[in-house]
C-alpha cells in the first residue's frame, strides 16, 4: 500500500501499488489516469515505511509513453534523529536558548538592583525583594513561553500559544516563588524538615513542566491535536513524560548555572558585574535546558510527525 497526503486537500490517500527496488532506488509504475502521482513534485522529499522500517528519500515523476514512472531515491540510513526531528530539535534549541537568555536577564537585573542595604528598611526588605524577583520571573516565563510556542506551531499547531505561554509563565512564578524563600526567610529555612525541603525542590523543578503537560494533554491529544505539523495525524505520546523530562533538564541546567556563577560572584562587586556574570551563567543554563528539553520534545511527537510542507509517504510491499 502507498499512503500519501493530498497536496491541495491535505487529506490522506491510500492505494495499492507494486514497486521494484534496485539498490537504493524504488520504481513505482502507474497509469496517467490515476491522479495520485500529481501530488509529487520534482525531487520531492518523502518519508517511507519500507518493510516495517522508516526511510527517507526523494521522489521524481516522469512520463514514459502510456505510463507514469515514480522514481524514489532512498537516502542513506543514518543513526540518530530522522531529518524532520533533527531540524525541529535544532530550531527548538536556538529559539529556547535565545528566549531564556532574554527572559532570565529580567530577574538577574532586578536581583542585582535590589540587593542594596536600603531594602532592609523596617525589616520588610527581603519580602519586597522576593516579590520583585518573582514578578521578574513572570517576565522570564512569558518570554520563554513565547519562544517555545514559536517552535510548537511547526509541530503541534493545535496548541494555543496563549495557553502555552500562560502555563509557562505560571510555572516560572511558582518556581521563582520557591527560589526566593531563602532570600525572604534567610537561615530559618534550614530548620525546616528535610522532607519539606525536598518537596519544595520538586515543586521548583517540576511546576513548569506539569502545567505545560496539562496543555499538551488537553489540546494535543484530542481531535484537533490529531493533526501534526499540518499534515497527517497522531498525538503527543504520554504527556506526563514531559514533566519528568522538563524537571530533569532544569536540574542539570541549574547545576550548570551554579558551576559558572558560584566561583565568579564575590562580595562587594558592582552591579554591572553581577548582572554580567548572571547573564553568562544564564546563557549556559539556557543552552543546556534548551538542548535537553528539545531532545525530549521531539521524542514525544507521534511517528507521523513532519515539520515541513513537502508530502510524506508510507510505502509497503503489497502482500500476495
Please tell me about this protein's structure.
This protein is an alpha+beta fold and 320 residues long. It folds into two domains: 2-79; 83-300, no CATH class. The protein has seven helices and eight strands. It has helices at residues 83-113, 125-155, 161-179, 181-185, 194-220, 240-261, 271-300, and strands at 2-5, 12-15, 19-22, 25-30, 44-50, 53-64, 67-74, 314-315. The strands form two sheets. It has a five-stranded antiparallel beta sheet, with no helix packed on it. A three-stranded antiparallel beta sheet has the order 2-1-8, with no helix packed on it. A hairpin with a 2-residue loop joins strand 3 (19-22) and strand 4. Helix 1 runs antiparallel to helix 2, helix 1 (83-113) packs antiparallel against helix 7 (271-300) and helix 2 (125-155) runs antiparallel to helix 3 (161-179).
Structural class: alpha+beta
Largest sheet geometry: 5 strands, antiparallel
Gross morphology is elongated
Using the CA coordinates, give the radius of gyration: 26 Å
Tell how many strands the DSSP assignment holds: 8
- Given as residue ranges, the uncertain stretches (5+ residues, pLDDT < 50) are 220-234, 307-320
Estimate nothing, just give the exact number of structural domains: 2
Instruction: Return the string of H and E elements.
Output: EEEEEEEHHHHHHHE
Strand content: 5-15%
How far from one another are the termini?
A: 12 Å
Number of discrete helical segments: 7
Residue share in helices? 40-55%
Whole-number average pLDDT?
Answer: 78
Strand order of the largest sheet: 3-4-7-6-5
Amino acid at each position: 500500500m502507498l499512503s500519501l497526503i493530498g497536496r491541495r486537500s491535505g487529506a490522506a490517500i491510500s492505494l495499492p501499488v507494486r514497486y521494484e527496488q534496485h539498490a537504493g532506488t524504488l520504481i513505482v509504475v502507474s497509469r496517467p489516469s490515476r491522479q495520485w502521482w500529481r501530488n509529487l513534485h520534482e525531487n520531492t522529499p518523502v518519508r517511507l515505511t519500507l518493510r516495517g522500517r522508516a526511510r527517507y528519500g526523494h521522489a521524481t515523476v516522469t512520463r514514459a509513453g502510456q505510463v507514469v514512472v515514480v522514481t524514489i531515491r532512498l537516502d542513506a540510513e543514518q543513526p540518530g534523529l530522522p531529518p524532520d526531528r533533527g531540524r525541529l530539535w535544532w530550531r527548538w534549541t536556538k529559539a529556547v536558548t535565545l528566549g531564556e537568555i532574554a527572559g532570565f536577564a529580567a530577574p538577574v537585573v532586578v536581583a542585582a538592583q535590589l540587593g542594596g542595604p536600603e531594602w532592609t528598611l523596617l525589616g520588610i526588605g527581603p519580602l519586597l525583594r522576593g516579590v520583585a524577583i518573582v514578578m521578574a520571573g513572570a517576565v522570564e516565563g512569558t518570554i520563554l513561553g513565547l519562544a517555545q510556542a514559536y517552535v510548537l506551531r511547526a509541530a503541534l499547531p493545535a496548541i494555543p500559544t496563549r495557553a502555552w505561554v500562560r502555563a509557562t509563565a505560571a510555572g516560572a512564578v511558582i518556581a521563582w516563588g520557591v527560589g526566593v524563600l531563602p532570600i525572604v526567610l534567610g537561615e530559618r529555612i534550614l530548620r525546616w524538615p528535610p522532607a519539606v525541603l525536598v518537596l519544595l525542590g520538586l515543586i521548583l523543578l517540576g511546576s513548569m513542566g506539569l502545567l505545560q503537560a496539562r496543555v499538551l494533554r488537553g489540546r494535543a491529544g484530542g481531535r484537533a491535536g490529531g493533526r501534526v505539523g499540518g499534515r497527517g495525524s497522531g498525538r503527543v505520546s504520554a504527556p506526563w513524560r514531559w514533566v519528568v523530562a522538563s524537571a530533569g533538564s532544569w536540574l542539570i541546567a541549574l547545576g550548570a548555572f551554579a558551576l559558572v556563577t558560584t566561583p565568579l560572584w564575590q562580595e562587594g562587586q558592582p552591579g554591572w558585574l553581577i548582572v554580567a556574570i548572571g547573564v553568562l551563567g544564564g546563557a549556559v543554563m539556557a543552552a543546556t535546558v534548551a538542548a535537553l528539553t528539545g531532545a525530549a520534545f521531539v521524542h514525544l511527537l507521534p511517528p507521523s510527525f513532519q515539520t515541513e510542507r513537502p508530502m510524506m509517504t508510507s510505502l509497503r510491499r503489497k502482500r500476495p
